[in-house]
Amino acid sequence: MASIFSRIIARELPAYIVAEDDHHIAFLDINPNALGHTLCVPKKEVDKLFDLDEDSYLNLMHFSHRVATALRQVVSCQRIGLSVIGLEVPHAHVHLIPLNEMADATFQKKISPSAEDMKNLAEKIKSIFV
Known about the structure:
This protein has 130 residues and is an alpha+beta fold. The protein has three helices and five strands; from the N terminus they run αβββαββα. It has a five-stranded antiparallel β-sheet with strand order 1-2-3-5-4. Helix 2 packs across helix 3. The longest helix is centred in the middle third of the chain and has 21 residues. It is globular and about 35 Å long. The relative contact order is 0.23.
């Protein structure tokens, strides 16, 4: 069965997509730690990050860097944090989280932005992503 991320990639499920290339997609987390919390996902479904071959891993990190650069221009924060956990969805992915305090990185503090805020933020990030 396809992961929820594979279903987003196939456009079977909606997402606030902020960036995409031939091998990756980035979209806003629907249960974010902070405004702008973004997931960077390889389009090829592989369960664990370190099961990716070396080129795929490095390309995902490069893509994540590009997304983080755009995110940093749109969201006011002290820094963009990166986290890889991967227990909830069996599809390798990177969390990019705008950080202003340590609690933003704990996955215990969540926010609930409106759909309109998510849509507007996604469009702003997408317009900057190169």
